[in-house]
Amino acid sequence: MAMQPTGGAQKPLHDDEIIELAKVFYDRTSARHLLDEAGLPPELLPIQDASSERFWREVNRELTFGIVEDGRARILAAALRRYPANIVFRRWVSRLGDDSGDPSKINAPISCSSMGGHLEAFVVDDAGQLWHRWLIQDRGWSAWSNMWRPGGQVAAVAAGSHDYGHQEVAVAIGRVVHHRWWDGGWSDWHEMPALGATIKDLSFSSHSSGAWEIFAIDDAGRLHHRWWNREAGWSNWHHMAGPGNRALSAIAAGSHSPGQQELVAVADGELWHRWWIPGPGWSDWGQLGGLDMRATDVAVSSLTKGHFEIFAVSASGRLRHRWYWPDPNWSDWTDMPTPTQWNAGSAPAGTAATVAAGSHSDRHQEIFTLTTDGRVYHAWNWLKDDGLPNWKSSSEWSAWHEMPLIG
């Protein structure tokens, strides 16, 4: 059934997509059949009496006005079904998230581990589909697999684990968090109680076995959290004030030791953190100064007990990190090479837009980034077991490696 115009601004086709559609679907019959398959109302489309490229640019104009919901995704999905090896159409499925040009709103790959030697990555594609792939040490990475999810526009994804053999993934759709977990098999999706505002970012953390906490930022920049344990189950949502009651734009949570967890947040481009330990509970917010850039996204990970690392990216794609050991405490901020810098002189790469991090084994950590040209890269490092104190042991990052396109 043909859909009526929905109204409101929608995502436009990219210029390279318009040109490719004009080349492949250049005549009236093939173009109309594709648009019919994509569900665009024929009576509202432009008359095809000009060049093919001009026709597709007129179609794009109608998409931006909201002729159908997710029109760009519908057209490119239909084109990909007909030409599955087309490079431009395949590139679309790796252009993740909002695609609005604001890197802070693109859904980055999210990683988590359920047991030693296992690492899983989750992403949301441009059509809002949730995909995952997993690493099993000594066997390598699986292919991407589509994971069915509840309907609606996904604004954020989080994943993590609170026990050996357990992992959990959550998606934010409107004011509701939907979550499911793995414990020998994937559960159904379950809804959490709705918040009073639309959710735009999520993060999970566990400070000990059987304890679990989720953090959410709403579209006003307010921070909310709720927690779970085996004995009491889930708490209600509680508001947590940001640093100086400032609005937050991104969060990341993690733990470096049993009974401890840390929350890192972006406020006005600055990085702040606070931590929780039994008894005293949450500390005050403290600024992580010296960043020398305005952060748009943040991620955290831990190599081993006592180690905590923060990764931050700016709108220009600059990637910086700093790390903590109980002795000698926090390092200075240090620049990390990005995929663009690693690939200089070979295949071009876009700048880093978002960042995620995780670990699958003691003394290991892995970082993921989504670049502005829609590609996912990852790099990793191992802390050497050389008999020295951990904070003195060497740890070198691998080169960046590109993950395959989704689909």
Tell me the number of strands. Answer: 29
The unreliable regions are 1-9, 94-107, 344-348
* Beta-strand proportion: 35-45%
- Rg, Å, rounded: 22 Å
Mean pLDDT: 82
CATH fold naming of the largest domain: Neuraminidase
Estimate the global geometry from the Cα principal axes: globular
Give the CATH architecture of the largest domain. Answer: 6 Propeller
Multimer state: single chain
Write down the CATH class of the largest domain: Mainly Beta
Q: Based on helices, strands and strand pairing, what is the structural class?
A: mainly beta
Terminus-to-terminus distance:
27 Å
- Whole-number total of structural domains: 2
Task: State the share of residues found in helices, binned by percent.
Answer: 10-25%
Biggest sheet features: 5 strands, antiparallel
* Number of contiguous helices: 6
Full CATH superfamily name of the largest domain = Fucose-specific lectin
Task: Kindly describe this structure.
- With 407 residues, the protein is mainly beta.
- The protein has two domains: 79 residues; 300 residues, 6 Propeller (Neuraminidase), CATH 2.120.10.70.
- Helices cover 14% and strands 37% of the residues.
- The protein is built from six helices and 29 strands.
- The strands form six sheets. Strands 1, 2, 3, 4 and 5 form a five-stranded antiparallel β-sheet that branches. Strands 10, 11, 12, 13 and 14 form a five-stranded antiparallel β-sheet that branches.
- Helix 4 crosses helix 5.
- The radius of gyration is 22 Å and the shape is globular.
- The N terminus is likely disordered.
